[in-house]
């Protein structure tokens, strides 16, 4: 039931649901504190106001009622037709009313976008590691080793002792080309301080000679792709066979004279992926007499 009463301070006609009887509130017109009266008290208040005002003022005043709730009470202005409510005041342009479900949907969409971005990041990162040739492998030095043999005059397998094995990073670009003196199988074995050996190791490569057991060992600075050159100490290339031009061009990035480095020796030149400790075994075949 609706209680209709008048403000005891300014005489403003008010209306409120009977659940608010006895509660404290403020008049929406004069902002003075008041107490919502009982239905009987409200009738008495309105009677006093009607008696105190002229009939014309009373009719004008009764044309507008206010429904007021304190805090969670909704403020409503009414005409004599109790079912007709005056339009609410214009909305603040600084705020936009949005249904709650839209906020939830936006939150879910943001979460989905974040998950997709995270997944793409993992895929791109994994592809980068794969392309670098080090995925799943060590990040420090790796060992490239193996055994090199040939066929002697009796077609028996023998160790190619003295064979030169050189590994060079395939993406290295030396500022100065490496001098080949001392690097060929027929040269005296170079020491660790030899300029050619130092230059090879400065770009991340290494050089070794096959021992009497046919073995070599190259400690490389990191995993990756390497050009591997083997120069046989006991076999010679067949007459009339010229080295591959592409191989010579690749060797020319590193050495001063690739043709002089190879000479008449049989050789292997290949590109190897060394992801972890690896082994290469080769046989140069039968020696040319």
Topology:
Elements: E1 2-6, E2 13-17, E3 24-26, E4 33-35, H1 39-52, H2 55-61, E5 65-67, E6 76-78, H3 100-132, E7 142-151, E8 157-159, E9 164-169, H4 195-202, E10 206-209, E11 215-220, E12 224-236, H5 245-252, H6 258-262, E13 265-274, E14 278-286
Parallel strand pairs: 2-5, 7-14
Antiparallel strand pairs: 1-2, 3-4, 5-6, 7-8, 7-11, 9-10, 9-12, 12-13
**For the largest beta sheet, what order do the strands appear in spatially?**
1-2-5-6
- Classified in CATH, the superfamily of the largest domain is Immunoglobulins
- The structural class is alpha+beta
Q: What's the mean pLDDT score?
A: 81
Global shape: rod-shaped
Rg for CA atoms: 49 Å
If helices are DSSP runs of H or I spanning 4 or more residues, what is the number of helices? 6
What is the third-level CATH name, the topology of the largest domain? Answer: Immunoglobulin-like
By CATH, the architecture of the largest domain is named Sandwich
Helix content: 25-40%
> What is the tally of beta strands?
14
**Domains (count):** 2
Strand content: 25-35%
Termini gap: 124 Å
Q: Are there runs of 5+ residues with pLDDT below 50, and where? A: 74-80, 82-86
CATH class of the largest domain: Mainly Beta
